[in-house]
Amino acid sequence: MLQFGELSYWEKATLIEEIDYLIIGGGIVGSATALKLREIHPSAKIVILERGYVSTGASTKNAGFACFGSVTELADDLEKMNASEVWDTVEMRWRGLQRLQERFSTADIGLKINGSWDLITEHETGTLSELNDQVAYFNEETQRITGQNNCFSYDSTIAQKAGFNRINGGFHNRLEGELNTGKLLLATNELLARAKIISLQGIEVKQLEMSKNSVSVETNYGTLTTNKLAITVNGFAQKLLNDQRIQPARAQVIVTSKIPGFELPGTFHYQQGYYYFRSIDNRLLLGGGRNLNFKGETTTEFGTTAQIMDTLKELIHTTILPTKNCTIDYQWSGIMGVGSVKKPLIELIHPHVGIGVRMGGMGVAIGSLVGEELAGLIA
User: Fold this and answer.
1) Domain map of the chain by residue range?
2) Strand pairing report for 152-155 and 167-173
């Protein structure tokens, strides 16, 4: 491939010279940043750099959950964080999902608000009484945030309805749902094209040099200069910025062969959310298992491991689809960005450089909002 210095006048002038805003990362956050900047600056030259031919990290690798909080997650968070932090995080997720729905039609992204279940296994029934005692409080806080009452309830019939084994029931969240990650990618690309935002794929950023009036970005094809820079690479941000507040976290996912007539009524969290699954096109999508090897899954390397793949397959056959026969047709991994707290990092690290990273596995929910807030910082 040609280096930037070998491009024609037309290519240089149109694509890579006199850049007003350069965005590193073409996923949900980077795209939202670009679109908001276009609203603020209708004539600015806005360029997105993406190192893959599609967004590389988690934006096209996720399970397509439109979620903001489950009962067991909230209960666990309240033991580790103060209440205001917990509910501020929930509110940000909720607002982000609303922003996503304002930007795209439900048909465009395959959005269904069909509820989620936080499953309780037969071995976890000892926690039910304590969790049930907290549901009224969770509903009160959720109503304050969403304006909707009775968000959470316990459903003791879900195992029978869905055909699960070894499940006592599940806490239902009626305001959560699912979307089609592929459709979201296509709809986003259409918006970027309409907004005349330049997207350059296959560009890997190697190093940054920040000066008083501009930022130089060294890539695998040469150096670009921009007036303002936004960094939205989430789980890869630590490697680029050497910022220990951001840790990569690999998530592994599988999708089964088609199962005639198979469809689940919503999305499902299992074992405090370390596993998650849903149906898609008469197939089962299942991901998780990072808790089996936190150290090993703290990586920016893509790939799957026998330990986690075997556990996911066992979960299918023993619990989720005990009476169905299926094989694994797809398997992949994505790289999330996590940290010691669940709040994303949205800040200026230089007068001309802002970051919007550390989505904590909630990029679908909060990505649009994070991108817009970042755009406001660097605009």
Assistant:
1) 4-61+182-245+341-378, 247-338
2) antiparallel
